[in-house]
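Dear support,

I submitted the protein below through the web form. The confirmation email said the job was done, but the results page showed an empty box. After a refresh the structure appeared. I'm attaching both so you can tell me whether what I see now is the final result or a partial one.
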Amino acid sequence: MINIKKILFVCDKNECTSFGRLTLNLVKAVAPEFEAHVLWLKTPKFFPEKSRGGYQVDYVSHEVWGRSLYTGFASFRGPLKKVIANVAPDVVFFIRPELGFLVPLAKRAAEKANSNAQTVMFVHDTFAETLYPGSFKFKLLNMFYIKDCVKADSFVYNSRWTRDEAAKHFGPKMGEARGAVIGCPIDRELFNKPAEAISQQEKAAFRKKMGIRNYYGMCVNVSLDEPRKNIDTFFEMARLRPDVAFVRIGKTSQRMTDIINAKKLYNVFHLERLAAPELRELYRHADLIVYPSLLEGFGLPPIEAVACGTPALCAATSAVKENMEGVCPLVDSPTDAEAYAKVIDRVLAGENVINENAAQALLDRCSMESFSKRVLEFIRR
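What the results page shows now:
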């Protein structure tokens, strides 16, 4: 067993993003045994304020600023070498494949510093060029940023589905390398059921406070406007059930506005930014979360909602099926809006569509304690 004393995590997204939160969850996972350092690769787009957020985790913070992630291809290299030389970490842990261009440099810097550091790459989701096969931008992203991620010494994955997809995409260099599925944790101190069940009257009052009136139920979706998120089907559900409010959390786009106008969807509402406690309250007061995504490497929102006591309704696809099968209803034709609408009707009629035992087993797997155990077992090997 290797006695690891220092770990350097490398992340290019702020603490309010999924990648930033995951980085700090990894810090929490290893903190009982190892000294954790985080190198934040900061840009104005992803770090609008030059200060750390309110996420209380004990670690040594390092940072370097660049104009953008693209110019960072050159400007992040020198600072990374300097941090590795100063810290002499036993492990350099990259938070996502888009940082793959830094892997060879990290290995050379570690060798020069005589730290014998192992490089680890966390692989999530599918890959940009498979999501947008016709995009020249993403072909360049793969060519210059992602492809060298296979040069890492080992890999961790958020799901079995991602592991299998990565092996198909990157081939034997990744598929046969040392690796493990470690999953993702959810914050149970934040996402949990209220002390007392929320009544229908309280849900109606919450909707009214949000400016959502004259609807007898509320469905929530958390997503980006990407083809894989299948937002078009969410909007079609809204068309089929005009007396139910459909609330989406995420940035809007002209494309979505055009769909809403064309379908005359007066029951669709958008919330672009929510702090985590606000998201929790939305989960708790919703009748269900609807997650029709076509491709997910993990899919946190439906798990967070279930932790808050709210039913989930998901597409039977990718890692969502891996996590949610047996827990909640899955629609195995993910674009079948009518099938989703029928389950929505059942929930609004008062039916419990969640398997409570399976849900608890899922939440136990996604606990920080369980996540920490998997992370530490992998690093110690």
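Response: this is the final, complete result; the empty box was a page-load delay. DSSP finds 17 helices and 13 strands in the chain.
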